[in-house]
Design brief:
By secondary structure, this protein is an alpha+beta fold. The protein contains 4 helices and 7 strands, in the order E-E-E-E-E-H-H-E-E-H-H. 22% of the residues are buried.
Length: 153
């Protein structure tokens, strides 16, 4: 399978994993992964100028996002840092700046209580595949263990 390179952040190649929302075939809200399978969430803030906000997110955050357990904007705002990316003529020429999350422009983010909804078959299939991987992951085992201890003490 060919991986589509989207960004280079901190000298890591970040590849498209799945488009969650597009506008006239342009991805505007999508998941990416690096070579270590770390997830990133990208939000296009200016289609004409190719400007993006990108955050690194945990498996649990991806799960909660995909299942509508958390607002889309909160997934972004819960991170410590974000990258502002302005597309160049080639990915290696992108302008990439890292900022503390406090510097983010809230007007660029999805509406306050907007939660992701599965509206297309390809997204439903992606979520089912993701869930299988998530429930088999070490992070899920840790979360389950923490919740078990919390409720059984």
């Amino acid at each position: 399978m060919n991986k589509e390179l989207c960004f280079i952040l901190d000298n890591k190649n970040i590849y498209l994993d799945h488009i969650l929302v597009d506008y006239e075939y342009v991805p505007i809200f999508f998941l990416c992964k690096d070579d270590e399978c770390q997830y990133y969430l990208a939000l296009c803030t200016d289609i004409e100028n190719g400007e993006y906000i990108v955050v690194k997110i945990s498996l649990l955050s991806v799960y909660n996002l995909l299942h509508g357990n958390i607002a889309m904007r909160d997934v972004i705002l819960n991170q410590k840092i974000f990258w502002k990316v302005v597309s160049g003529d080639e990915i290696k020429n992108d302008i990439v700046n890292e900022y503390p999350i406090d510097y983010i422009n809230h007007q660029d983010l999805p509406e306050k209580d907007a939660k992701f909804k599965i509206l297309q078959k390809h997204i439903k299939e992606y979520v089912q595949k993701f869930d299988k991987e998530f429930f088999a992951s070490e992070q899920y085992d840790k979360e389950k263990s923490i919740k078990f201890r919390r409720y059984n003490m």
